[in-house]
């Protein structure tokens, strides 16, 4: 401020020097505190709606806790043992893992293939990309309703189609595996296109001279896809596999609306862990302690499968690189 | 492309030169126009994506009698759409309330997420402060936490605040997202040059003024995409609202679920409800889908 003062001689006597120092102090304080101020909304709200509930889950799971009457006695691990003694918990776990496998494996494969097709120099690029993304804007609840009708046991379009092909109708709502297939197809409907676009973005970042080199070496399109595209997508594949693991194991909306009662089928054919959690806490039992125990158990499962997935996809990608390396050495000979 | 290369090899140096010229034009084969097989495949994918939505329109515009007679509706909508929509509005399920509620929740969440994420992203990307690195890592790490894990205590918290059954209980957990902060940080890192910020500071602008007049305009494209993502997430969210809200004060996914539970035989009515719940987002998608696609393409993890 004092440096600038000679430029403006007139107002100088009016302004007492102390105020200048004060505004300078504000300026410095502004620079120091502002960054924390700007990031604080995230941290404050996360503390309330994320971190605190996260820690509190453990506390609730160790107590008797009714939805209506609130906190009861400390019971130790009784909620966990009682949940694990219920056959429905294991049924739900089996269904969840089955639906997760039926959805994520075909989904990742289909997404990569669709991305490979979209990677061509298309006319109306944006139109095709938007078309692929269209299912993403439909709410899972709505998707569930639409597919529940398409997979109807008596008046379903899918069974009608099977009939035209000369096959017997499938009891999509009565049998275990068919119901899992139907629910997995809902998940795939909504997410395949989204993941295809993520793969497409990664594909476009692959240096084109790799393909040129492959062409000179005489590699066909299929060979190029498996020897260049897939290994180069390693990080993206891991990312998509991990996110679809976290999402797939939490599945709730689609099985909830697969029939009008929303309880996962008459014999729990498509009861999932989150559906089970919901029934424990907000259904007939109103037992929030046990619901918390299920939430924690589900988290453990997600972590275990997530780590397994990471190791697996890492190894697949690593073995691809080994092949590439050995090929390079072979080429030199 | 492989054919170009093989011709170049077989015909000899003169032809190779011409082929090389052609190759330069078609870098890596990617600029060659694909054949009809590609379009056929894409057409099939598009059909699978669009048919279920078209099916909704078909059922929503048919009469109940037609639907119960045949599993495959005619391919042309039947003209009872208006009647079915009126039936949804006249049913005892509060559709209008759901529309208004979903709109309020989405609007507030979009506004807050964009504002807070841009603020935090600007801070992480361009300002120097102690603890910046670890705090950013923490933000990213929170993305891995599943929602189910905190849902029971969150319910207890909201109940103690007296907010259960209230829209505030749905809005609050969604007004900041780790994804938003991360997204904005990534974008502003590259899109906002330090010179602009310094120039504003030298001109005597306060920190918040600098943010408002320099960072915010620069963040506009990323903010638009974040707004779209947030709107979709908010509009389609079902699990948490179904726990904390009541059936008298629902959001749209809850309305759809109630229609199914109460009118489970009346598919023309249910599908009219699904159509009404999906239409607003569909309109947004038609208008801004291009940006959404661009956003996903820009935000992908690159190998």
From TrEMBL, chain A:
Protein known as: Cellobiose ABC transporter membrane protein
Alphabetical UniProt keywords: Cell membrane, Membrane, Transmembrane, Transmembrane helix, Transport
Main localization (coarse): membrane
Domain ABC transmembrane type-1: 93-309
Membrane disposition: Multi-pass membrane protein
CDD domains, A to Z: TM_PBP2 (cd06261)
Family of this protein: Belongs to the binding-protein-dependent transport system permease family.
Signal peptide (UniProt feature, chain positions): none
Source lineage: Bacteria, Bacillati, Actinomycetota, Actinomycetes, Micrococcales
Membrane-spanning parts: 36-56, 97-118, 130-150, 233-252, 291-312
One Gene Ontology cellular component annotation held by this UniProt entry: plasma membrane
TrEMBL record, chain B:
Coiled-coil region(s): none
One GO-annotated biological process of the protein: transmembrane transport
Keyword Manganese: no
Keyword 4Fe-4S among UniProt keywords: no
Span of domain ABC transmembrane type-1: 99-288
Annotated transmembrane regions: 36-60, 103-124, 136-157, 169-188, 222-246, 267-288
Record membrane topology: Multi-pass membrane protein
Keywords carried by this UniProt record: Cell membrane, Membrane, Transmembrane, Transmembrane helix, Transport
Domain of life: Bacteria
InterPro entries per record: MetI-like, MetI-like_sf
GO CC terms, sorted: plasma membrane
Pfam families named among the record's database cross-references: BPD_transp_1
Localization: Cell membrane
Family assignment from sequence similarity: Belongs to the binding-protein-dependent transport system permease family.
Protein name, per record: Cellobiose ABC transporter membrane protein
Species per Swiss-Prot/TrEMBL record: Flavimobilis soli
């Amino acid at each position: 401020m004092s440096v600038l003062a000679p430029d403006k001689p007139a107002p100088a006597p009016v302004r007492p020097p102390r105020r200048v120092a004060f505004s300078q102090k504000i300026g410095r304080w502004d620079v120091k505190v502002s960054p924390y101020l700007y990031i604080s909304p995230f941290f404050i709200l996360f503390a309330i709606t994320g971190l605190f509930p996260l820690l509190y889950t453990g506390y609730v799971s160790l107590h008797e806790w009714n939805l209506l009457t609130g906190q009861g006695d400390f019971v130790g691990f009784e909620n966990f043992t009682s949940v694990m003694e219920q056959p429905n918990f294991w049924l739900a776990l089996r269904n969840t893992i089955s639906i997760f496998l039926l959805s994520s494996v075909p989904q990742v494969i289909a997404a990569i293939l669709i991305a490979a097709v979209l990677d061509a120099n298309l006319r109306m690029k944006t139109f095709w990309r938007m078309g692929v993304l269209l299912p993403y804007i439909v709410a899972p609840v709505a998707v569930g309703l639409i597919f529940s009708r398409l997979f109807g046991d008596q008046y379903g379009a899918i069974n009608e189609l099977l009939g035209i092909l000369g096959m017997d109708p499938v009891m999509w709502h009565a049998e275990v595996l068919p119901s899992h297939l139907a629910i997995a197809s809902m998940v795939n409907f909504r997410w395949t296109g989204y993941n295809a676009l993520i793969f497409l973005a990664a594909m476009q970042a692959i240096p084109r001279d790799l393909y040129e080199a492959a062409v000179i070496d005489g590699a066909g399109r299929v060979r190029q896809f498996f020897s260049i595209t897939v290994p180069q997508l390693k990080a993206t594949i891991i990312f998509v596999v991990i996110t679809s693991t976290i999402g797939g194991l939490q599945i709730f909306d689609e099985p909830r609306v697969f029939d009008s009662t929303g309880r996962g089928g008459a014999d729990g054919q498509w009861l999932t862990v989150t559906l089970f959690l919901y029934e424990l806490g907000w259904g007939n039992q109103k037992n929030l302690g046990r619901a918390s125990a299920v939430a924690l158990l589900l988290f453990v499962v997600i972590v275990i499968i997530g780590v397994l997935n990471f190791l697996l996809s890492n190894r697949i990608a690593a073995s691809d690189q080994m092949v590439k390396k050995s090929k390079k050495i072979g080429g030199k000979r | 492309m492989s054919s170009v290369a093989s011709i170049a090899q077989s015909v000899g140096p003169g032809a190779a030169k011409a082929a090389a010229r052609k190759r330069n034009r078609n870098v890596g084969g990617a600029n060659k126009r694909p054949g009809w097989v590609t379009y056929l495949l894409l057409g099939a994918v598009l059909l699978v994506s669009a048919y279920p939505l078209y099916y909704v329109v078909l059922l929503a515009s048919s009469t109940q009698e037609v639907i119960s007679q045949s599993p495959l509706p005619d391919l042309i909508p039947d003209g009872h759409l208006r009647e079915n929509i009126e039936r949804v509005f006249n049913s005892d399920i509060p559709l209008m309330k759901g529309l208004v509620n979903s709109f309020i929740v989405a609007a507030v969440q979009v506004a807050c997420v964009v504002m807070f994420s841009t603020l935090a992203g600007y801070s992480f990307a361009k300002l120097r402060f102690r603890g910046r690195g670890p705090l950013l890592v923490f933000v990213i790490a929170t993305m891995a936490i599943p929602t189910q894990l905190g849902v029971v205590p969150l319910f207890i918290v909201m109940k103690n605040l007296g907010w259960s059954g209230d829209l505030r209980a749905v809005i609050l957990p969604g007004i900041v997202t780790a994804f938003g902060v991360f997204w904005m940080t990534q974008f502003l890192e590259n899109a906002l040059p330090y010179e602009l910020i310094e120039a504003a500071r030298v001109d005597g602008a306060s920190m918040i003024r600098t943010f408002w007049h320099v960072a915010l305009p620069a963040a506009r494209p990323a903010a638009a995409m974040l707004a779209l993502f947030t709107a979709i997430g908010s509009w389609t969210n079902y699990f948490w609202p179904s726990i904390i809200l009541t059936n008298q004060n629902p959001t749209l996914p809850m309305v759809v679920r109630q229609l199914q539970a109460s009118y489970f035989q009346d598919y023309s009515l249910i599908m009219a409800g699904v159509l009404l719940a999906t239409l607003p987002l569909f309109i947004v998608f038609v208008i801004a889908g291009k940006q959404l696609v661009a956003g996903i393409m820009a935000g992908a993890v690159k190998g």
